[in-house]
Amino acid sequence: xxxxxxxxxxxxxxxxxxxxxxxxxxxxxxxxxxxxxxxxxxxxxxxxxxxxxxxxxxxxxxxxxxxxxxxxxxxxxxxxxxxxxxxxxxxxxxxxxxxxxxxxxxxxxxxxxxxxxxxxxxxxxxxxxxxxxxxxxxxxxxxxxxxxxxxxxxxxxxxxxxxxxxxxxxxxxxxxxxxxxxxxxxxxxxxxxxxxxxxxxxxxxxxxxxxxxxxxxxxxxxxxxxxxxxxxxxxxxxxxxxxxxxxxxxxxxxxxxxxxxxxxxxxxxxxxxxxxxxxxxxxxxxxxxxxxxxxxxxxxxxxxxxxxxxxxxxxxxxxxxxxxxxxxxxxxxxxxxxxxxxxxxxxxxxxxxxxxxxxxxxxxxxxxxxxxxxxxxxxxxxxxxxxxxxxxxxxxxxxxxxxxxxxxxxxxxxxxxxxxxxxxxxxxxxxxxxxxxxxxxxxxxxxxxxxxxxxxxxxxxxxxxxxxxxxxxxxxxxxxxxxxxxxxxxxxxxxxxxxxxxxxxxxxxxxxxxxxxxxxxxxxxxxxxxxxxxxxxxxxxxxxxxxxxxxxxxxxxxx
Length: 559
Hints:
The protein has about 550 residues and is of the alpha+beta class.
């Protein structure tokens, strides 16, 4: 046999071709998918599309049939260390032909229109895939169709992909019954290691940030290990947390006499006007139109030198004028004096901003929305939450770490005096989050007592902890209300922009963004989507990519 140099090996599919345009369509579509997607477990930035990762991993693990056939004809081997590993090309070529032919015969209705003619030709015998070039094209068509979100949990797609991964591993010298190892030392949101497991490889994920480590533990370790039982336990204890939280928090989010439930409270920060002889307290509102579709907004009324905010309903959009804040400048509606942006920031840094609750959004018993002015008793309710917070502080704490002063462009709240994490929440929000936090030690003990499985208790507590952490992005004083819904603090990706006005969500509301039940439901749905689709348990480590903890020559694919 002819020996190759150490760097030579049969080419993988990704080195000769990849249907990028078709994969990109599926990756773009995936951005709008929320049900069952791992992105619902917790927010993460620069998350790689699952569609692209799935396609790239398959194309990186599977050899090119054309080049592999050439290796078979030459009888070449791959040197590894002191010995040589014989390439067993026929193992993959036979499996690929068998699987692609079976696919054409059984699943013609599932393939895309781009793949249809090729698989029809295979089905009717016009193509036998004896030609390695035809086999290459069939595999690339399969990869493009497998990138579709709808096919990512299809049993037949999964079995076919895993059979090809196993055959490729053994054909390239892997020990029989072992799997290729895919390593991602910067795992982030977990897209790459998740897709490695999906297509039948082993996966090792690591990161220095504890959040992605926890996310990957959920997806790579907890879900494959416990399956549907984990989903059931998360659903059960999520309901327990919400029930216990309602006992503590319901009084701070009271329903209206007609049974309508508050969804959100709209707040405006205020600052005193510096105009000559004015001194009015100016509500800082970015725009007075709240809902264009419903014709809802606010008007600012000058009542004896005091600005009153009045909520108007069923009005045309033209009724509502610009807000008081534009391009960082504040304009007083009474005297017209405009405060420069720099002056506004400097006064905010000195702590001169106040807050005003001006509107409550409610969900009526028939499911319709109602907007109304803030009521006097709602101010009293808020103050009682402040009192409760002081008592809870004896048992827990509010984060007071400083925001990074080296990133003012991304964290421009720093310019306005919001220089530690605790300042990004009002007192009622702090009280609610602290209440949830204090429930976790009790829950953990209960799960251990009921299941007698410490690891399961760890898994359930971790997942529900991530769920509470994830819903905080809607429960802080930089979240907003837009188009009849809560908008995350991260409206501009990973930055935290200053908001003159903000929306405070009711964390106890049912199945709406901003409520804890919404987050629990999506978490359970994601687990249920994944439970039946993994036959491998991955490994996750909190470690630096510069510290090698895996054995030498153990990695088949480094992401």
